[in-house]
Amino acid sequence: MSPLQTSEFTIEAFEAGDIDTVRFDHEAHVYVGWLYIHEFGITTAILRFEAALRRLVALKGAEDKYHATLTWFFLLLIYERSEVDEPWHTFRQRNADLVNGSKGLLAHYYTNMHLFSERARERFVLPDNLAKR
Length: 133
Known about the structure:
- By secondary structure, the protein is mostly helical.
- It has nine helices and no strands.
- The relative contact order is 0.12.
């Protein structure tokens, strides 16, 4: 896939469902989440991003692709790792593990059984692998 063209992903386009889902890869998800965090703060960002993502997958007939825990987890990590007034390219460079969607990152926090449970798909669940870190 070609490098992320940030201009094609905006909060407005995301909320309107006007996103090319073929190009909306993991990095684009993180970028849009980063936009939400910087625009609204964590609480409103989670609520608005989740609602918009649920609408988008419903619009595309892909409701089974939505995963609440993955959505919340990545938004929380974006928030935790963000610096005030930091541009996207700097955030991206500092957080390659987050942006590249490393499965190892998830394994530090969740067991597969817990993360891919039906409960975790439907609502945010706390990590279950912290004691093993």
